Amino acid sequence: MSQAQAVLREVFGYDAFRAQQEEIIDSVIAGDDTLAILPTGAGKSLCYQLPALIREGLTVVISPLIALMRDQVRALRAAGVPAGFLTSQNTEEETEAVWSGISDGSLRLLYIAPERLGLAGTQRMLKSAGIGLIAVDEAHCVSQWGHDFRPDYLKIGELRASLGVPLAAFTATADRETQEEIIYRLFAGRTPSVFLGGFDRPNLTLAFAPKLKPRQQILDFVSARRGTSGIVYCGTRAKTETLADALCKAGTTAVAYHGGMEPEARRAVEARFSAEDGLVVVATVAFGMGIDKPDIRWVAHADLPKSIEAYYQEIGRAGRDGAPADTLTLFGADDIRFRRTQIDESLAPADRKQADHGRLNALLGLAEAQVCRRVEVLAYFGETAEPCGNCDLCSNPPELFDGTDAVRMALSAALRTGEMFGTQHLIDVLTGTETPKTKQHRHDALPTFGVGTGFSRTEWNGIFRQMMGRDLLRPDPARHGGLRMTDPALPVLRGEQTIKLRRDALTRKTTSTPARALVSEEDAPLLSQLKACRRRLAEEASIPAYIVFTDRTLIEMAEKRPESLDDMAAISGVGQKKLERYGAIFLEVVTGETTATLHPKRRQIAGRAAAPIYDRLLEAQSRLQRGEDGTQKPVSCSASLLARIAKMSHAEEGEVMRVLGERRADRFGSAFIEILRSA
Ligand code: ADP
Ligand code: ZN
């Protein structure tokens, strides 16, 4: 086992590296400049935390958000890693502890808020602190063109140059320009080793649904998942409040969050969300980067996001712990109009607007997709995949029909009315519905009037939405939103191309996504007990529940039902420190028995190679206590002596005898050496 693997097991409690973690960690440990671009939840933090424990010197971590730093430091300490942070919000004791940890060399990781980098004192301190590595989290914050730009990040390049140590940068934002800017600004243009992770998040269920009764759809989705933490994203601030109210009335604990709230109120929501089990936050996209909770079980979009990038980043906040998580994105014709208008009315130059329309089209294509959504999303990011079996389209393949005639009728209605009208008027024309407007414009005299009675109004709405989704018709701001035909529609109009539409999207039938159970029925009661135990421990220590253990770890406990602390140590997420602190407590929940009889020294080595050896030494000791024939004066070894020997090798025979001392060596020496030899 490599040293990195040993640390992974002992400190972090994980069995194996996730995809790419190992290569990245090797690169960082080797002291290479490293840039890793991995999706949210891929496990980037480990890629600098683990090397920090292996490399010489102190690792400085620059991270943009104070709340995140606190959480990470708390989680590290819970795993027994000496870590601290320096921010503008530090208490005197916190800062004091950091200084003494630096001066006695015990501190391994120091998180620093970027704004501290500008202070002369910080620079001086870092120069003398024996820094061996700089790690930069959310490295895209250095990009001046991005949404998350932090001017203080520009000072990192200077810091690296003045300390002359390797730098490892991490981000989930992958586009080429940002990548180049990161290299230019953080690495002064020297090319680092770049690791580009795959985009797939297999534990997320992907689902879209047309808005039929949008509020009810959200209420249903949320109430099927009551008691779990989730986020509902809304397009407007006002909607976050009304929807949060509606959810509360329906019996869910929900709070609103948006950029118009006071910073203090926002922080309070963030803190509650991170600490509480089962809170729902109804938010605008302002609720984002500060969210590091690994056990968000679902994300719903009450309105269509603005691009696939935004969509994927937002749903990506769910299920970071790797356990199953659900998503649902609602969309309707009003969303399409809203997003188009937003682009058209922006002050961006024409080519930028065109690009934005293109990006919106890609998202709409995903919303109206006819085969696996994951295949579609990954294709957008340049990856190929097989149908996933974990999206709404894989589990419910949509029924398709030849919509060529319907589309041609709709296009013709738009053209013959001068491309000046919106969906509802065009549907009036197609279904032959007389209104003051059809009379006023003499549209009841058009040949298209009433040609579309083969479809109901609802069905026509679905057809128009799918047409807009495929950008065959586009609302034109110059004509007050009147629908204009686009060039790609021409071949369909001319009969040169046929088009398939989704039938299910035409009906009002809402198919709700059933909540996925995290564990099988027979394990569910145990999982609830484990969660209750976790909540109690978290509350006692005033820490978020996931710092004790993540959902994923509890799920594994409920499924594998460890019978001993050794089994417990094999559960993913149970490292050495947590095993000592919580292992026995959770084991009691699983087995219903106490493990108080196990000696603390034995508990400390639970799950390690030394554990079975210890047990055999103990057994030999009881057998030989009164000598081979059972008649001699009793001699025994303390538990700590046994634990010490259990960690030794038979090759150290002389050393074993020495620590045993003469009397015990006489009695147990050869038996112990035999046990060590056969281990
Ligand atoms: P990112 O920063 O890439 O979004 P995190 O570093 O927050 O992701 O990690 C997400 C979750 O995955 C955390 O709960 C972390 O403890 C867990 N994790 C990381 N590496 C592993 C691993 N090798 N095995 C199991 N869980 C892991
Ligand atoms: Zn699929």
Description:
By secondary structure, the chain is of the alpha/beta class. It folds into 5 domains: 3-196, P-loop containing nucleotide triphosphate hydrolases (Rossmann fold, 3-Layer(aba) Sandwich); 204-331, P-loop containing nucleotide triphosphate hydrolases (Rossmann fold); 400-502, Arc Repressor Mutant, subunit A, CATH 1.10.10; 524-597, DNA polymerase, domain 1; 610-678. The chain contains 30 helices and 18 strands. It has a 7-stranded parallel sheet with strand order 3-4-2-5-6-1-7, with helices on both faces. Strands 8, 9, 10, 11, 12, 13 and 14 form a 7-stranded parallel sheet that branches. Strands 15-18 form a two-stranded antiparallel ribbon. Strand 5 (131-136), helix 7 (155-163) and strand 6 (167-171) form a beta-alpha-beta unit. The longest helix has 26 residues, at 653-678. The mean pLDDT is 89. Bound molecules: adenosine-5'-diphosphate and zinc ion. Zinc ion (ZN) is lined by residues 372-374, 387-388, 390-391, 393-394.
Write the layout of secondary structure elements.
Layout: H1 3-12, H2 21-29, E1 34-37, H3 46-54, E2 58-62, H4 66-78, E3 83-86, H5 92-103, E4 109-112, H6 120-128, E5 131-136, H7 155-163, E6 167-171, H8 176-186, E7 193-196, E8 204-205, E9 208-210, H9 214-223, E10 230-233, H10 237-249, E11 254-257, H11 263-275, E12 280-283, E13 298-301, H12 308-315, E14 325-331, H13 333-345, H14 350-367, H15 373-380, H16 392-395, E15 400-402, H17 404-416, H18 423-431, H19 436-440, H20 457-469, E16 473-476, E17 482-485, H21 490-493, E18 500-502, H22 524-541, H23 545-548, H24 551-560, H25 565-569, H26 576-591, H27 600-604, H28 610-624, H29 639-646, H30 653-678
